[in-house]
């Protein structure tokens, strides 16, 4: 691995960025170029292997293993017997869990986008205070969701910090363990809005400042500049981060486990509970639940990428 | 500046006064709200970490104590801290070079094959981590993979999309001209690598390593299911404390012990770059 980077003048790679001009300056190079291209190709494939093999292996073993176990073909003990009980036996429960997961993910995604965009605009618009908000917001990104969930529990639970701040009203709603999953969604929005803000700020180019100035010169108010200039230019970044937030919150275990009600269960909580159950017959159901979440994530990603592509083509 | 702006902006009469008067107030108010929003969940964590007795209606602790922090010095907690550190470093040490190799291959392979490598490297993002762990668990047990190695393997696959993406964007912006200039000036290939290539990729390396470290440092699900109780990390202790009642102090200090080390790293390297970008 002496010359890992492709580029002119680094030996075998030197035709990579070339248009052929430099090649024609050297007689008899065409045949060598073909051979060199083959060499580069083989070396690139070799370079890819250490990264590609573990991913393919773990994903393959995991998906095949889950499928086989969901059908009773890979029991923990005893002989394998093909059975669809893991799927059909709890189809209603599976659908309920999928609906709860979809609700949590959709609500968390929409609110994360709104708050994250507001944070990004604020960071760009306010020079001094914006720097403080940027620093604090970035500092929350490395906090694991488990810790965020623990903190939200201390803040929002019954007789938690917020309840005390409000003077312990009797009508305080059940935010933790309540029917609307408010503590879970709050935790996701708290963490993921910082991520959305980071992506939006990263995507903003210098040309945006120029466009904002032009709009201001033409008499646009700050609000109009945000809605008609900043928001449309941020749509690609918002769309990509929406997809990431949705898929993450759909499949995350820690927050709904710590902060959600015991029933109904979202897919990850149900799968992990069934998996840890002393009843080994619950394993196929656990695997079916896990596979439903994999399929739903894949469907969300395909739909999201499809929408993004269609949008780009329309433009 | 103030003398130029009014002339540049032919704002409708009346509106300009409003915007000049109200905006700084709105801006400050919004800023305070956002700071409160970010700090709100962390405030009870900090208060609980130093609380001795803190009964229900009181807004601030009745008594203060450092007993909870003292519990961090216990042997089991220290061992869990070391296990978390080891897991984070192991994941980062493996996932960072693999991400580099993958990104390099994706860039140099032509067309569809390059895209296929990209797609494979991003694929773990599409699969919920708990599902990945559940499916692989039985096979790992049957192959007698040790708990720590099994967790590292799963988490390396989870972290690869981040490290590969960091190198992918760094390589896409990489200017080969710098290397050409160095070579023209008579630099030996090894000198080019040391003085041009390594410094130019240093930021991507640091970011990728940090993200991969976080994947291991903060992991809960893989450690819980693959570790099978043999591997006790700080998040495992925290999960046990947070899921039972009456452990507020312990939950708080364990949270701080997980949050603070990465934030210090970020404050030292990351935030200056971020704010510079935000201001620019």
Features:
heterodimer, A: 315 residues, mainly alpha, MetI-like fold, 13 helices, 73% helix, flat, B: 280 residues, 76% helix, disordered N terminus, disordered C terminus, MetI-like (chain B), ABC transporter permease subunit (chain B), cell membrane (chain B), MetI-like_sf (chain B), transmembrane helix (chain B)
Report on the architecture of this protein:
The complex is a heterodimer of chains A (about 325) and B (about 280). Chain A has about 325 residues and is an all-alpha fold. Among the domains of chain A are: about 100-235, MetI-like (MetI-like fold, Orthogonal Bundle); about 260-315. In chain A, about 75% of the residues lie in helices and about 0% in strands. Chain A is flat, with a radius of gyration of 26 Å. Chain B has about 280 residues and is mainly α. Chain B has a domain at about 75-230: MetI-like (MetI-like fold, Orthogonal Bundle), CATH 1.10.3720. Chain B is about 75% helix and about 0% strand. Chain B is globular, with a radius of gyration of 25 Å. The chains are: A mainly alpha (about 325), B mainly alpha (about 280). At the A-B interface, helix 2, helix 4, helix 5, helix 6 and helix 7 of A face helix 2, helix 3, helix 5, helix 6 and helix 7 of B. Chain B: Keywords: Cell inner membrane, Cell membrane, Membrane, Transmembrane, Transmembrane helix, Transport. Chain B: This is ABC transporter permease subunit. Chain B: Pfam families: BPD_transp_1. Chain B: InterPro entries: MetI-like, MetI-like_sf. Chain B: One of its GO terms (cellular component) is plasma membrane. Chain A: InterPro entries: MetI-like, MetI-like_sf.
